[in-house]
Amino acid sequence: MASITLNNIVKKYDDGFPAVNNVSLDIADGEFVILVGPSGCGKSTLLRMIVGLEDITSGELQIDGTRMNEAAPKDRNLAMVFQNYALYPHLTVYENIAFPLRLAKRSGGSNGSNGDSTGGANGGAGGGSVDDRVRKAAEMLELTEHLERKPANLSGGQRQRVAMGRAIVRQADAFLFDEPLSNLDAKLRGQMRAEIAQLQRRLGVTSVYVTHDQTEAMTLGDRVAVLKKGELQQVASPRELYEQPVNLFVAGFIGSPSMNFLPATLKEGAAGFEGSERAGGAILSSPIGDIPISAEKAAVATGHELLMIGLRPEFFEDAQLVDEAKKGKGAVFTAELSHLEWLGHEQYGYIEFEPDEKVRRLLSDLAAEMDADELRPQVVTTLSAESRVRPGQPTDLWVDTSRIHIFDPETGENLT
Ligand code: ATP
Q1: Mutation probe of ligand 1 site: the residue of 15, 36, 44, 228 with most atoms within 8 A of C-beta
Q2: Gly residues bias located where (predicted)?
Q3: CA atoms within 13 A on the CB side of 97
Q4: Residue 79 region, left (φ>0) first, then alpha (ψ -120 to 50), else beta?
Q5: Domains plus CATH for the chain?
Q6: Which of 28, 34, 49, 152 lies 20 to 30 Å (CA to CA) from residue 79?
Q7: If you take atom 27 of ligand 1, which residue's CA is the nearest one?
């Protein structure tokens, strides 16, 4: 097992534009780190530089403290698990899993390309006979009864496990996953996600996992690194990313449904209003109405002509279902839901608002920033399943203003 360190890594392709720009990241021994971001953000390029399939333009890659920029892929002892599994269709499951070991034996212990494009210096060494190791890996992956089958006769999830089996038998220092689940249907993806998470924990092997799917990122990793246009935005635990995103991009990318962004201004003459819990606070004027904020939040908002506020869908609730004690932590406002989606365990209520020209421009800038086609002038709220609110009529909703995020719309920085 090994630690992986990236110091100021830059990758420029022929066009000279940095696909990866100055990325520094320390991945501890045994840690599971997810690289996530929209298409083209440079996550695959970063992974390929770690494995050695792509040259590093500048900066340093260390594996277990040793510089590896110039090392051939086979000398890095990393195992890559690809989206398309890279299984040999004419070989059985057993032979597919044994493949890297046999190759290593043939080339005398330090193997060359094994078809995963990466090698494994330990490929043939230690840990018993090839047969022992294949059977042990198969057992771990619950593939024992399928050992004689060909990949064509396996489900997507089983193929995925065979690909992981190949990485396991090689006793690689780290597993690198490049969107391994993106070919699977939603249900299987969920199952495999859980399997990979459990397996990684059981084996304790350092793992780096690339995905564009924020749910995968949140559920798999010890830490998640969010990339945008080649630059690292934030590296943190899933919970920290969700609760304390550093900027608009991370806030909008992590979470589903996404955080709602609303333009707001500090209300003239309302600063320092008297309220038992919020003395010294202020009021923000927003398209869904006035939002009282605490003194602490008012302090960061002061001095900004225009603000962007962020409210997650679950900050909202049907006001009738909120007890008095909780009500005090937020604000009640009246809105009309344009439509309501009932999902069984909860409901999504949508509030639409009419943006003026300035707000329209702000939302379109924000969409560009987020890599989204458009940001609709609407607020998504998740309401309890037992709520009896109806669309098209004035409804009292409660919003937890204590958790509000306040962003600088110019820089995107989270001020709270
Ligand atoms: P995706 O999820 O779509 O695979 P990604 O985040 O993995 O995206 P990369 O594939 O790493 O992104 O690409 C990052 C940037 O580098 C993109 O702008 C891409 O067009 C560019 N790029 C990738 N490979 C090459 C290449 N071989 N030559 C030139 N540019 C490349």
Answers
A1: 44
A2: 109-129
A3: 31
A4: beta
A5: 4-252 (3.40.50.300), 257-407 (no CATH)
A6: 152
A7: 13
